[in-house]
Design a protein that fits this description.
The complex is a heterodimer of chains A (572) and B (370). Chain A has 572 residues and is α/β, with parallel strands linked by helices. Chain A folds into 5 domains: 54 residues, no CATH class; 51 residues, 3-Layer(aba) Sandwich (Glutaredoxin), CATH 3.40.30.10; 210 residues, 3-Layer(aba) Sandwich (Rossmann fold); 92 residues, Ubiquitin-like (UB roll) (Roll), CATH 3.10.20.600; 89 residues, de novo design (two linked rop proteins) (Up-down Bundle), CATH 1.20.1440.230. In chain A, 42% of the residues lie in helices and 12% in strands. Chain A contains 24 helices and 15 strands. In chain A, helix 1 packs antiparallel against helix 2 and helix 7 packs parallel to helix 11. Chain A starts with 6 loop residues before the first helix and ends in a 5-residue tail after the last helix. Chain B folds into 4 domains: 89 residues, Ubiquitin-like (UB roll) (Roll), CATH 3.10.20; 118 residues, 2-Layer Sandwich (Alpha-Beta Plaits); 59 residues, Single Sheet (N-terminal domain of TfIIb), CATH 2.20.25; 71 residues, no CATH class. Chain B is built from 10 helices and 17 strands. In chain B, a hairpin with a 5-residue loop joins strand 14 and strand 15. Classes of the chains: A alpha/beta (572), B alpha+beta (370).
């Protein structure tokens, strides 16, 4: 329909839908190949949004093109891993072939560097001549084999069935235990679901680590309005690609998790806010939603239960890291400028349209059905020592077997790096790894052998596990350069609302790229002051976490900083 | 945000006293008050740059941070609502260090120039805080953030974004106070730019040139071009509180003069009718006062048909004769009175008494009817 629909038809299609702005903008963007002035005037008129606000909001998003043909240009990943793997070479090669090329931040395909986004296809391959579209790589099987020393008998939670053939279909999902949790929950009652989650110790797997049971209970007990469940699938953290594999290969797990959240909290409206860079995932989710609705597992009177109504809408983002922050995400859904909101109040009482709202990450939601089915004790037992449950780690960079690994919390980092993922290539050593994608800065030196994959251990090293992205850099990498590209990412993605983040990420980027004082003591004085004020006064996690990059650079690689300051190009 | 009062009210249950500890002193507060409002009430002089008391708190500049016991990081006092039992500190060494660093950061993106106070009501806020915190300018040197718009040749509003610090006060005052939604923000991060629809000129946008943006701007990035055009007139600027003569609303204004010359107008933030708001006429259209063509006496038409200056007595007699003649010749309903929209209630009332009791007709209206 998009090809020939009139402005009025597009407006009529979306105007009365929930959260209409993003899909309406995408409809014009898809039809015209860019967002024209005329399109924006129609959207502003149709949705009663001030034109200046709409114009400003559109410019906030990375992927909305404002020039004819802009949508179709080839977007090459220049994320931290891909820039080490020839992203620029690939971009130049594509340009030489006459393609319109743009650079984009990490699109969550670090297991197959270097991805290129062309319209609605992600293509990957060894070089510019051999790019093709293929499915998201499945996680490696956990079984121990001679060639794959990964072992230990650790049981998985969210990946338990993801490799089963047919799991992505409703029949396959149900054949492997799918929707048994929802039936159990309906028999036990909503309070029981929340009690089970409380007892399981499940905490948010998107990075913030808030206890899931407490969040659901707060929404269940909140007064006011139709409640909403939002699945945060805006997996924008560089080096994170776990939610993509969960949605692509096990989409019903996300839907069942959301439906359990709706049942437990009394919500009737659901959204999956999906990042722009996962175009293939949209169709997978929408097909799954249609199949579940046909089977009475979504929609009105779910599983025949009168009054249990829940509908899920997929909303596609448009390229903005900050929209993974839950209050920015809510503003984005509502069609507002996607700045983070001031908190309190929190989304559990004042979320989508000011109503009580559950916002959970994909992995968190996928963890819920197995927990409900197998019990809190089972889940707690999956972790090592005192740690409860599992975490998916997206591992990429300088290791032999990059990919997604579901690890028991408390697993030593070195076991994952060396035993499971094969370690660095021959003759190389691991110099540093990032934590929480980029947000946790680096772990290096002796800590590489000492740290275990759980928040207490990682936080005791001044970092955090977060969403579970780990990028590996071997001893051939220049850590000042890696830090510079990391900080440049934060500077580009800073929303611009609060001063410490907007200015601080820029100033740190400049200081990692030859700017600022030449004298080491002065350089350190400025950088440490910036770090301290950003960490303490930034309005959201972006500005609070970005300085962990320079902090860990100073901690582990002081000699690289000195070299950077003496060897940098002299000012003219 | 309609929820605020409701939430504040709920916390008042069970006889819980609405008190908290502010810098060691127990103080009471009203439900819904922010920590900043309470601190201001107690003279704490908490610094701000993105704050305008007429607008929804924004939480951008982070200068108003205070320490809140139990909170890992300081909180922005402008957005944080008071709750019973809070323990709040407004001026610890840590806070002051962060504030100084923040001022040095924000000064680093700004052109170092003295901003003429004629630029606007709040135009000295940034410079005052740079001095107060003894912010070391030159620290954190790097790219500057704003791009000025010398191509916008409107006669009222200077768009000197090289002084802009992206506090969004102009965006918010335009939306919340004026309801124009003309100003917005494009891009993000350090590339943030204050703009209007399609990055165009003010005259092609929804701007009504009310001047609210120039009066709330804390750096003079948006500035009063008409006042600045008078910057070379010698003498101290004096402000005289008066009422805008244009319409019956009665907006309070401070007329700025140097010697006998009006150099500009600023809205009175404490004006009871306008609370700092003005429209384009009250803000900018004061040239008539000193215009050579301005009428300074009444005129009456002579027998030759030409207008000539007259005294007020002459003119009023002539008008009274004219009205009287019409009534005598055509009856009392042959006259019709239209009160000026510029007249206040009292004058409008007098006008209708004049028509009804004086001339005996109900033919009375007001030009503001539309």
């Amino acid at each position: 329909m998009a090809g020939s629909a009139t402005n009025e038809e597009l407006l009529a299609r979306w105007r009365d839908e929930p959260a209409p702005l993003l899909p309406l903008l995408h409809a014009f963007h898809d039809r015209d190949g860019f967002l024209s002035e005329d399109a924006l005037r129609h959207v502003a008129d149709g949705l009663r949004i001030p034109l200046a606000d709409l114009y400003g909001t559109v410019t906030f998003y990375h992927h909305f093109a404002r020039e004819p043909g802009g949508r179709g240009e080839s977007r090459v990943c220049v994320g931290p891993v891909c820039r080490q793997r020839g992203a620029e070479t690939l971009a130049h090669a594509l340009e030489a072939r006459g393609e319109r090329v743009a650079r984009m931040p990490c699109p969550g395909r670090c297991d197959e560097p270097v991805p290129v986004l062309r319209g609605d296809l992600v293509v990957t391959g060894p070089d510019a001549e051999h790019l093709s579209n293929g499915p998201t790589p499945l996680p490696a099987p956990p079984a121990s084999t001679a060639a794959d020393p990964r072992s230990g008998g650790f049981e998985e939670c969210v990946f338990r069935h993801i490799r089963d053939p047919g799991r992505a279909t409703l029949e396959g999902y149900r054949a492997t235990g799918g929707y048994a949790a929802l039936e159990l929950a309906l028999a036990a009652g909503p309070g029981d679901v929340i009690d089970t989650l409380d007892a399981s110790g499940l905490a948010g797997r998107g990075g913030a680590g808030f206890p899931t049971g407490r969040k659901w209970r707060a929404v269940a007990e909140a007064d006011g309005g139709a409640k909403t469940v939002v699945c945060n699938a805006d997996e924008g953290e560089p080096g994170c690609f776990k939610d993509r594999v969960l949605m692509d290969h096990d989409p019903f797990a996300t839907l069942e998790g959301m439906t359990l959240a709706a049942y437990a909290t009394g919500a009737t409206l659901g959204f999956i806010y999906l990042r722009y860079e996962y175009p293939e995932t949209i169709g997978i989710l929408e097909d799954a939603i249609a199949d579940a609705t046909d089977a009475g597992l979504l929609g009105a009177s779910i599983l025949g239960r009168d009054g249990f109504d829940f509908r899920i809408h997929v909303r596609r983002g448009a390229g903005a890291y900050i929209c993974g922050e839950e209050t920015s995400l809510l503003n984005s859904l509502e069609g507002k400028h996607p700045f983070p909101r001031n908190r309190p109040p929190f989304p559990v009482t004042h979320g989508y349209l000011g109503r009580p709202t559950v916002v959970n990450n994909v992995e968190t939601l996928c963890s819920v059905p197995p927990i409900v089915r197998k019990g809190a004790e089972w889940y707690r037992g999956l972790g090592l020592g005192d740690h409860s449950g599992t975490k998916v780690i997206s591992l990429s960079g300088d290791v032999r077997r990059p990919g997604n690994y579901e690890v028991p919390l408390g697993l030593p980092l070195r076991t994952l790096l060396h035993d499971w993922a094969g370690g660095p290539s021959e003759g190389r050593a691991v110099r540093a790894v990032t934590m929480a994608g980029l947000s946790g800065g680096f772990i290096a030196g002796d800590d590489l052998d000492a740290v275990t994959l759980d928040e207490p251990s990682v936080r005791s090293r001044g970092s955090f596990l977060g969403a579970g992205g780990i990028m590996v850099f071997d001893d051939s990498r220049d850590m000042v350069d890696v830090s510079h590209s990391a900080m440049e990412f934060f500077a580009e993605e800073s929303c611009g609302k609060c001063f410490p983040c907007r200015i601080g990420t820029q100033r740190l980027t400049e200081r990692l790229n030859g700017g600022g004082p030449r004298d080491l003591a002065e350089w350190l004085d400025e950088v440490t002051d910036l770090e301290a004020t950003m960490k303490s006064t930034s309005a959201c996690g972006l500005g609070q976490a970005a300085p962990l990059v320079t902090e860990s650079l100073r901690r582990y690689f002081p000699e690289q900083i000195e070299r950077h300051l003496t060897e940098r190009r002299p000012d003219e | 945000m309609s929820d605020r009062n409701g939430r504040g009210g709920e916390s008042d249950g069970a006889g819980a006293a609405n008190t908290l500890t502010l810098d060691g002193m127990e103080v009471s507060f009203e439900p819904g008050e922010t920590l900043y409002e309470i601190a201001e009430r107690h003279g704490k002089m908490v610094p701000t740059l993105c704050y305008d008391e007429r607008l929804e708190p924004f939480g951008g500049c982070r200068l108003c941070i205070v320490e809140l016991e139990g909170s890992r990081n300081p909180v922005a006092s402008c957005t944080h609502r008071a709750e019973p039992g809070m323990v709040v500190r407004t001026h610890t060494a840590h806070l002051e260090t962060h504030r100084r660093t923040l001022m040095e950061m924000v000064a680093s993106e700004n052109r170092e120039v003295d901003v003429d106070p004629l630029s606007g009501y709040a135009s000295q806020e940034m410079a005052t805080l740079v001095d107060r915190y003894d912010a070391r300018t030159g620290r954190f040197a790097g790219h500057r953030s704003g791009v000025s718009r010398p191509d916008d040749d409107n006669p009222f509003i200077l768009r000197d974004y090289e002084n802009c610090i992206s506090c969004y006060r102009c965006v918010r005052v335009c939306a919340e106070q004026e309801g124009d939604y003309a100003i917005s923000v494009k891009n993000r991060g350090f590339e943030t730019r204050i703009t209007v629809e399609f990055d165009g000129l003010l005259k092609d946008s929804a701007c009504t040139f009310c001047g609210q943006c120039i009066q709330t701007c804390p750096t003079g990035a948006l500035a009063d071009l008409k006042a600045l055009a008078n910057r070379d007139i010698p003498g101290e600027t004096e402000k005289t509180r008066t009422i805008c003569p244009y319409c019956g609303v009665g907006c309070s204004v401070d007329v700025m003069t140097r010697g006998d010359t009006i150099v500009g107008v600023q809205p009175a933030m404490d004006g009871p009718a306008n609370e700092g708001a003005l429209c384009v006429k009250g803000q900018f259209a004061f040239d008539f006062v000193q215009h050579p063509d301005r009428l300074k006496t009444p005129f009456v038409r002579g027998d030759d048909g030409e207008l000539r200056p007259a005294t007020w007595d002459e003119a009023l007699d002539r008008a009274a004769d004219g009205l009287g003649n019409v009534v005598r010749k055509h009856g009392r309903h042959a006259v019709y009175g239209v009160a000026s929209g510029r007249a206040p209630h009292e004058a409008a009332y007098m006008m209708q008494r004049f028509m009804r009791a004086g001339l005996g007709t109900h033919n009375i209206d007001n030009c503001s009817r539309a």
